[in-house]
Design goal:
The chain contains 15 helices and 14 strands. Helix 1 crosses helix 2, helix 2 packs antiparallel against helix 15 and helix 3 packs parallel to helix 5.
C-alpha cells in the first residue's frame, strides 16, 4: 500500500506534498491531484518516457564503492536499476505513482545518490534537466536560482512547472550534491552554481524567529509565515550536515546559526509528543519561542508520519560526517519509543500520534531504512534486526517493495548506504 499526501489550499500547494509517500505491502494508493496551478512561461511538449540506456552498469557502480561497504552489491545493483527505470535519458526523474510528475526533490535525490556512488554522467543529466525545466519564473522572467518543486502535465495537456513554489529540502539536497560534486570531479562551475543558489536559499527560505535567531523555512515565506507571530516548520527539512558544508563555501552568510536553531527545533518540538517523536509539521510562536501543534482545521498535521522519517537519516549524517554530539544524543533520546515498540512487537506502525497511539496497522519500508541509518550508529543490534527482518526481505532484483515506488527506492538506498563511502576530503573546504 502507498499513501501520498497532495497539495492543500491553506499554504500555497506545497506545504505537504514534497515526498510524502512510502510503500508497504506492494499496493499503491494515490490521491487525485488538486487543480494544477498554471505558471507563465513557454509550454513544453509532452515528453515520452525514454529511460537511460538499458545495459547493466552495476559492475561499474560496484567498483566505485569501497570493498568493505556493507550491502555493496545491493547498493550498486539498486542504483543501476533505479537510474534505468526512474530516470529519462534527458535526466528527468519520474514519479510514476503521481501522474508521471517530476519534483525538485526527485532531481536532488538523484544528484546526491550519483555523487555518493561516483556517477558523474547521471549527475550531469539530472542537474541539466532541473536547470532547464524547474527554473522559477514570473511573467516570463527568472525569479531566482531555486527550483519549482513540481513539474508535470497541466490540465490543458501541456507539460511544465505546475507549482511555481520551491521546497527548501529539494534545494538543500541539490546544493549539497553540487558542492560535493565540484570537489569529487573537479568541476568549479558546480561550486559557482551552488553559491548562487545558497544566496537565494538564504534570502527566500530563512526567517527571523524567536530571540532574533534565524530559522529554515520549508519554502517561500508567504506559504510558511501565516501571520507575524508564527512560523510553520518541517523538522525533516533540517539538514545540519548540509549547513556545515554550506558554511565552508559561503562565508557571507551565517549557516552555522541554522545548525543551532535546527537542533533547537528538533529537541524542543519533540516535547510536543508524549513519547518524544518528531512531527511532520510544527508551529513556532515567535514571541515566546514555544512550539505548538498545527491547528486541527489544518490539513497538515503534527504527528509522526512519512515526512518525519527523514529526521533520522539527516541527523545520522551529521553524527557520521561531523561527529556532532547533539546528533547522537537526539537519536538516542527521540528513538526510544520506537526502540520499545520494536523490541515488543518486531514491527513499527507507519503513523503515530502525539500521545503515542499507533494510528495504522501497516508498516513503511522507508521508515525502516531511515531508522537503519540512525540505529546503525546508536543501537547497532537493532539496526541489524530491521535490516535482516524488514529491509532485505522487501528487496528483489534492484527494487524495494514495488516497481513504481519512487520514494521508497530513494529513502531505502540513502538509509542503507554507509556515510563513509564519501571520501572525507570531500567534506572539507577546497
Amino acid at each position: 500500500m502507498n499513501l501520498r499526501m497532495q497539495h492543500l489550499p491553506k499554504i500555497a500547494a506545497i506545504a505537504i506534498a514534497i515526498g510524502l509517500c512510502a510503500c508497504f505491502s506492494g499496493y499503491s494508493v494515490v490521491k487525485k491531484e488538486a487543480e494544477d496551478v498554471k505558471v507563465p512561461g513557454k509550454n513544453l511538449p509532452t515528453i515520452a518516457v525514454t529511460p537511460l540506456p538499458g545495459q547493466d552498469n552495476s559492475a561499474t557502480f560496484l567498483a566505485a564503492l569501497p570493498p568493505a561497504t556493507p550491502n555493496r552489491e545491493l547498493l550498486a545493483q539498486s542504483w543501476d536499476s533505479y537510474r534505468r527505470r526512474f530516470i529519462q535519458n534527458d535526466g528527468r526523474v519520474i514519479d510514476y505513482e503521481a501522474s508521471d510528475r517530476s519534483t525538485s526533490e526527485g532531481q536532488a535525490y538523484a544528484m546526491l545518490r550519483a555523487v555518493l556512488i561516483d556517477d558523474a554522467d547521471t549527475f550531469a543529466r539530472t542537474l541539466d534537466w532541473g536547470e532547464k525545466n524547474l527554473q522559477r519564473r514570473e511573467n516570463g522572467q527568472p525569479l531566482d536560482s531555486l527550483w519549482a518543486w513540481k513539474w508535470g502535465q497541466r490540465n490543458d495537456g501541456t507539460w511544465g512547472a505546475i507549482d511555481n513554489n520551491f521546497a527548501s529540502d529539494g534545494d538543500i539536497d541539490a546544493i549539497t550534491a553540487l558542492i560535493l560534486a565540484s570537489r569529487r570531479w573537479q568541476r568549479p562551475e558546480y561550486l559557482d552554481l551552488a553559491r548562487t543558489k545558497l544566496k537565494d536559499l538564504w534570502n527566500y527560505s530563512t526567517a527571523i524567529g524567536f530571540a532574533g535567531k534565524r530559522y529554515l523555512l520549508p519554502g517561500p515565506s508567504k506559504a510558511f509565515i501565516p501571520n507575524s507571530s508564527t512560523l510553520y516548520l518541517n523538522p525533516s527539512y533540517l539538514a545540519t550536515y548540509a549547513f556545515r558544508i554550506f558554511a565552508t563555501v559561503d562565508p557571507d552568510r551565517d549557516w552555522l546559526s541554522l545548525v543551532d536553531t535546527s537542533y533547537q527545533v528538533l529537541e524542543k518540538s519533540a516535547q510536543l509528543s508524549n513519547v518524544g517523536l518528531p512531527s511532520d509539521w510544527v508551529a513556532l510562536d515567535i514571541p515566546t519561542g514555544k512550539y505548538e501543534t498545527l491547528p486541527q482545521t489544518s490539513q497538515i498535521q503534527s504527528l509522526y508520519s512519512f515526512d518525519a522519517y527523514r529526521v533520522w537519516w539527516r541527523v545520522a549524517l551529521d553524527a557520521a560526517w561531523f561527529n556532532a554530539p547533539q546528533a547522537k544524543q537526539y537519536l538516542q533520546t527521540s528513538t526510544k519509543h520506537l526502540q520499545q515498540i520494536w523490541r515488543e512487537q518486531k514491527r513499527l506502525p507507519a503513523r503515530i500520534d502525539l500521545q503515542g497511539k499507533q494510528l495504522v496497522d501497516y508498516e513503511a519500508t522507508s521508515q525502516y531504512a531511515m531508522l537503519y541509518a540512525a540505529w546503525s550508529l546508536i543501537e547497532p543490534q537493532l539496526g541489524k534486526e530491521i535490516l535482516e527482518q524488514k529491509l532485505l526481505p522487501q528487496y528483489k532484483q534492484g527494487i524495494w517493495d514495488d516497481h513504481s515506488a519512487y520514494y521508497t527506492q530513494n529513502l531505502a538506498w540513502l538509509g542503507l548506504i554507509e556515510p563513509s563511502v564519501l571520501p572525507r576530503k570531500l567534506l572539507q573546504p577546497n
